[in-house]
Design a protein that fits this description.
- The chain is of the alpha+beta class.
- The chain has one domain: Alpha-Beta Plaits (2-Layer Sandwich), CATH 3.30.70.
- The termini are far apart.
Length: 127
């Protein structure tokens, strides 16, 4: 491979790496808003529906998006009204785990039966 091709390939790789990283840490779309990605135990459509429907009512929350492929909950919020720790606590109160904290047991018992059967609020078993 000639030196120009090596340089172009390296530059392209660096650009793609920066682009992918920037997408995972995008700032919120509006001034004063922040976003947080919370790792959860959500694995099914009912989890997605429950979390997106309930978490949006938390003070300061503007947008909630659950990604079932990664079990991540992306929340856009007004930083003057709430913070990431309060949002994690709200997710736990719904019965789902949040960044390593198991879901509330009483709330878990009230989740749809499919979620209880699949263990959506519980932490994965460690080998």
């Amino acid at each position: 491979m000639n030196p120009i091709n090596v340089l172009v390939t390296a530059a392209l790789g660096l650009f793609l790496s920066i682009s992918v990283h920037a997408q995972s840490t995008l700032p919120a779309t509006k001034p004063g808003l922040e976003s947080v990605k919370i790792q959860s135990s959500a694995i099914c459509d009912m989890c997605e529906k429950t979390i997106e429907t309930e978490l949006i009512y938390e003070k300061g929350v503007k947008k909630v998006d659950v990604d079932l492929t990664s079990s991540a909950v992306l929340v856009e919020f007004d930083a003057k009204k709430t913070d990431a720790d309060k949002l994690r606590a709200a997710l736990v109160k719904l019965g789902y785990s949040a960044d390593g904290t198991p879901g509330n047991a009483e709330a878990f018992a009230k989740l749809p039966l499919c979620c209880q059967k699949e263990g959506c609020g519980k932490m994965p078993e460690q080998p």
